[in-house]
Amino acid sequence: MTTISVPMPKDLLEFVDRIILSGEAENRAQAIRKAIRKMREQTEINDILEASRQIKEGVSYSGSLKDILKHRKNA
Fold this sequence. Notes:
- The chain is built from three helices and no strands.
- The chain is an all-alpha fold.
- The chain is elongated and about 50 Å long.
- It starts with 9 loop residues before the first helix and ends with a helix.
């Protein structure tokens, strides 16, 4: 695993610490990893919704969902 250093404003750091205090994460690194995973998940959901919108508009795709998402990311 690679380590990165990210400057963070006080309000975001306090938010991360509240996540730890609530028990949602064990430490700051885990809280940040969870946040980034959630962002990735939301991006993937948005890609699916956009593909669905395009299909409704008549743009056609063929192949598996994985292929379609790969095509969308390269577009």
